[in-house]
Design goal:
Chain lengths: 418, 345, 275
């Protein structure tokens, strides 16, 4: 072939072959990208934009800025130690008068300030209600103090001053049990509000327990399935796949029926004389663990099983025939080859666990709720979207870090689905 | 909003799919037997006489959905059943329409708590101490006994939330009904209530839905529970004769109809509220669940037996207290969050 | 049968089998327990059974709430499946053919809806779309369910494409077939098992989805799992057991369909030249 190298290969239309090939390749690449694009756009709209907006919401703080612009401007020159001067008080009164017409914005600002100091909401509402009567007061300061002497306390003015910016770390800090005090320092929250570090620790702790139990229960079953003849293992595999395909709510309902105080398990235990009083198995941590392990176990068994299927039994045989003890050769020769499957299953189960909501909500008590519950609680019950989104942001961060590790170690496309 | 451009992109992709029926009146209430009674007393007769088709749904009193609807100006719900603190707060915040009472009826015909700017009362209900007599030795007479785990061993049921729970804790701690809200208005008072709750915390099984306490009591999972009186009365009717209500120390409140701000069916909604405020239909409601009518003219239509079970009966209301609505409007969010933090520990 | 060398080995062999049997029993126990209760005449979900009755199924089929939720699920799940399958299959074909830097990352992004906690997706789309007034109606629910189902389609279709011999397409093209024609006549039949199982997964995801539905669906769009969720919260009645039994029957059908497809895919692949 060496004699052909200097000549340029041409196609029948006279274009160099290399260029033509590259062009074809490029067109095919573009076509491939065009196939991916619709999904990418779809996920951007339905998935990524909402999540980006959630991240933004977690630091968004428009309420006070919107209602009290003049007050905030005046507070810039405040010494921070005593009740602000007459001009600031007048600014507040004029801000409130203007806002009185927009009940919605006023209520939002009151709600926001109430998070800084309890009772602030009613202070704002009360002040707005009494505004007309105070027109005759000699000064704005006097007017405010007549309505409520809390206005004389600098803490209430600090609360306004802290919200001078339309973005705030308030919610993210609160999600980590911290807040900013009147001196502008980041300090630990009061004990009756500081629960989120505990909740995060609980979330990770519970997920770890679930993952470990899944490893302990899943490994032997995967080994059995991998070493049985195909026909038998396919049959047993159905026992793993059937629960996997059964609705989570069906399984939750079934566990409540099984575990409740008059349920099958308790009647069996009492019937066998193992216990006299029914055990508390549900609406507590035990119930959450049992059902979470039940739901996530197939996610553990399947990856381990698929790795084990690829392990040739001859290594073990060789080790044993060379005189190694069966247990030792299992541990030294077989087990290391399964680590990839264990890592895949373990990470997947852990990632899925930390986002669990339904199972703890239906089978647990208040002390068994994980981060997701608080996200839902703040969204629906107290309509505190700042807290909901910042807890969500932190949970998302944890998930994405773990997912990146998973991608790096295992590869997202290698997820096993039965 | 800096996300405008993407939002418009999202909007243009999804708008064709968001069309929804505009001809029905959507009515959201608390579910369970309360809704069953409403179906019999109000929904059925109203659909028959007015020809308006009702779409009904259930919720747990969360304001989030209503707030989102009003913010978006896309109102999917027309009439909602709300508890009073939410009604007042929502009225302040502009979530509900102001009602034209001249179209509903004569204000004088209603119990005072049922008449407000944005709401028309549906019924008077009570949260009371209830117990399973078969599982207890002796008869509990009030919240002090509820806290007495030695004299009355067994688990306790309480509604998962600060409202009612804190009041009951203070009553158990010896605070007089008239002083409960005075005490609760101070930080020390709230601390005192939580401290009292700490005493029985391990024995509490929390409930969310109104149907749960009767189930917990009947199955023996708890021996005493706070409960809505109507649910217990229904359970008694269903054969659970051992379930009893202690009226002393119970707290009563009114549930109201409100129209979501900007509802396109405001006229029909008002027509429905006026219909449901008539004594002849409130009578059917009270016969199906033991909650008191808000229209006082409905009372004489009820039999003595039905009247005796209502929270408004003279013997029942004597030692009961009314929920302090203004207190919960002012402090609700803060206390609910603190309660949630406390319960999660 | 194996021959055992020592007693401890024999003991270990049987202990191991018993452990595995117990774990497998644990996995199927809830399903075995709830089905008989749905045919029980008593209104308490307790054993022993008191008598055979179909009244709970009657309850289910005569309840407007349950029927409405069944109808909604029958609208939402298939629609979400179609959207997810279409977009996911296209993307999987594109991803297999394309070569560019960051492909692994893109794959990771497209599959991420599977691992992001559903509560986060629920809250995020609720807060994002509610101000736009899009939370009434089926549209948003279908789209979000489709987004949750897409990763499964990508994974299953990519897996079948990995055994796909691209020379077949070259051959078709050299014989004068258009790419589209070649796709429908060659690629699609070969990857069909992957597409269908992906679709089944997407269907299962939407049909079982409750968290996003909690946030995004109004009372008119309540789905079957959403109705079950409030049912379990309020009062676990035998009607729930009846619904559960119907859902289990559906899952058994899906599982069998999937097993059948897997068998077909293996047969197809092994019969192909160069596979």
């Amino acid at each position: 072939m060496s004699d052909m190298s200097p000549a340029v290969l041409l196609t029948n239309t006279g274009v160099p072959m290399k260029a033509q090939l590259r062009r074809i390749e490029r067109v095919s690449q573009l076509k491939s990208l065009a196939l991916i694009l619709p999904l990418l756009l779809f996920l951007i709209v339905t998935f990524m934009l909402p999540i980006a907006a959630m991240l933004r919401q977690s630091v968004s703080n428009p309420e006070v800025v919107r209602v009290m612009p003049a007050t905030l401007q005046a507070l810039k020159h405040w010494n921070g130690k005593t009740m602000p001067d007459e001009a600031t008080s007048r600014a507040l009164l004029s801000d409130l008068t203007r806002a009185g017409g927009d009940g919605y914005a006023l209520a939002a600002a009151g709600k926001r300030l109430n998070m800084e100091i309890a009772g602030y909401r009613s202070l704002v509402m009360k002040t707005v209600r009494h505004l007309p009567e105070e027109r005759a007061a000699p000064s704005a300061r006097a007017a405010l103090l007549t309505v409520d002497d809390r206005w004389g306390d600098p803490a209430y003015w600090h609360a306004i001053a802290r919200n001078a910016s339309p973005t705030t770390p308030f919610y993210l800090l609160a999600s980590l049990d911290h807040n900013v005090n009147d001196q502008g320092e980041v300090v630990h929250s009061e004990p009756d509000r500081a629960i989120y570090l505990d909740v995060f620790a609980r979330t990770f702790g519970m997920s770890l327990v679930v993952t470990l139990v899944c490893v302990l229960l899943g490994f032997p079953v995967a080994y059995l399935l991998a070493t049985l003849p195909t026909r038998k293992s396919n049959l047993l595999m159905i026992l793993v796949l059937l629960p996997f395909w059964t609705s989570v709510l069906v399984r939750v309902a079934a566990w409540i029926v099984l575990l409740q105080s008059g349920g099958l398990i308790n009647s069996a235990l009492i019937g066998l004389g193992l216990t006299r009083e029914p055990l508390e198995l549900v609406f507590n941590r035990t119930g959450v663990y049992i059902s979470m392990v039940h739901i996530l176990l197939p996610f553990m068994i399947l990856p381990i099983y698929s790795v084990m299927r690829g392990i040739s039994p001859s290594y073990m045989r060789a080790a044993i025939s060379l005189g190694s003890h069966p247990i030792l050769s299992f541990w030294r020769v077989y087990f290391p080859q399964t680590v990839a499957g264990l890592a895949a299953g373990g990470l997947l189960v852990f990632i899925l666990s930390i986002g669990y909501y339904i199972t703890p909500a239906l089978l647990g008590g208040p002390k068994d709720q994980m981060v997701s519950y608080f996200v839902a609680f703040y969204t629906n019950t107290t309509v505190n979207w700042g807290m909901a989104t910042s807890l969500g942001t932190l949970l998302l961060l944890a998930t994405l870090i773990l997912y990146a590790v998973y991608n790096r170690l295992i590869g997202a496309n290698r997820l096993q689905l039965g | 909003m800096t996300f405008n451009a993407p939002k418009w992109l999202a909007l243009s992709c999804l708008i064709p799919l968001a069309a929804h029926a505009a001809t029905d009146l959507t009515l959201i209430s608390f579910g369970g037997s309360n809704k069953d009674a409403q179906v019999k007393a109000y929904y059925g007769p109203f659909q028959k006489t007015s020809g308006v088709h009702l779409v009904t749904g259930e919720y747990n009193g969360e304001m989030a959905k209503i707030k989102a609807m009003v913010e978006a100006g896309n109102i999917g719900w027309d009439v909602v059943e709300v508890e009073t603190p939410e009604l007042i707060r929502g009225c302040d915040e502009g979530l509900f329409e102001k009602l034209d009472w001249s179209q509903i009826g004569n204000k004088k015909d209603f119990v005072p708590a049922a008449v407000s700017q944005c709401g028309a009362g549906i019924f008077v209900w009570s949260t009371a101490l209830t117990y399973n007599a078969a599982k207890l030795k002796g008869t509990p007479t009030g919240w002090k006994d509820f806290w007495d785990l030695k004299k009355f061993p067994g688990k306790r049921g309480l509604r998962k939330g600060a409202k009612y729970t804190l009041e009951f804790a203070l009553l158990a701690d010896g605070v007089k009904p008239a002083d409960v809200y005075k005490v609760l208005a101070t930080k020390a008072g709230v601390d005192r209530a939580f401290k009292k709750l700490d005493q029985i915390k391990p024995a509490i099984q929390w409930w969310d839905a109104g149907a749960q306490p009767a189930q917990f009591l009947a199955s023996g999972d708890v021996v005493m529970s706070s409960a809505y009186n109507g649910r217990i009365a229904l359970a008694q009717k269903d054969g659970n004769k051992n379930l009893k209500i202690v009226w002393g120390g119970s707290i009563y409140d009114v549930d109201s109809w409100a129209i979501v701000k900007g509802s396109p069916k405001k006229a029909e909604a008002l027509k429905y509220i006026a219909f449901a405020s008539k004594p002849q239909y409130q009578k059917i409601y009270s016969e199906n669940i033991a909650y008191g009518p808000t229209n006082v003219k409905a009372l004489p239509l009820l039999s003595k037996a039905v009247q005796a079970d209502l929270p408004t009966a003279a013997a029942n209301i004597k030692n009961a207290m009314a929920l302090n609505v203004q207190f919960w409007v002012d402090n609700g969010e803060e206390l609910e969050q603190r309660f949630n933090a406390w319960a999660a520990k | 049968m194996q021959s055992f060398v020592t007693l401890p080995e024999r003991i270990w062999y049987y202990t191991f089998r018993v452990i595995c049997a117990l774990v497998l029993l644990f996995l199927v126990l809830p399903i075995l327990v709830i089905v008989p209760l749905s045919f029980n005449s008593s209104e308490f979900l307790l054993y022993p059974l008191t008598g055979f009755s179909l009244r709970w199924y009657q309850d289910f089929f005569h309840s407007p709430e349950w029927m409405n939720s069944l109808k909604n699920s029958a609208i939402v799940a298939p629609s979400a499946t179609v959207v997810a399958t279409l977009l996911g299959t296209m993307a999987a074909v594109g991803l297999t053919r394309a070569r560019f830097r960051g492909k692994a990352l893109l794959m990771g992004v497209l599959i991420s809806p599977m691992v992001v906690p559903v509560v986060i997706l629920g809250v995020a789309s609720y807060l994002f779309f509610a101000p736009l007034g899009l939370t009434s109606g089926y549209g948003l629910l279908i789209m979000t369910h489709a987004a949750l189902g897409v990763p499964f389609v990508i994974i299953t279709v990519s897996a079948t494409l990995q055994g796909f011999n691209t020379n077949l397409l070259r051959a078709a093209s050299s014989l004068g077939s258009t790419p589209l024609h070649a796709f429908f006549r060659i690629t699609l039949p070969l990857i069909a098992p992957g597409v269908v199982s992906g679709a089944l997964f997407a269907f299962g995801t939407s049909f079982d989805e409750v968290v996003v539905t909690l946030f995004l669906a109004g009372p008119e769009q309540t789905t079957l799992p959403r109705q079950m969720f409030s049912g379990i919260r309020e009062n676990i009645s035998p009607t729930i057991a009846a619904v559960a039994t119907i859902l289990i029957a559906i899952s058994v059908c899906m599982l069998l369909a999937l097993e059948f497809l897997r068998g077909r895919a293996e047969k197809l692949r092994s019969s192909l030249p160069g596979a």
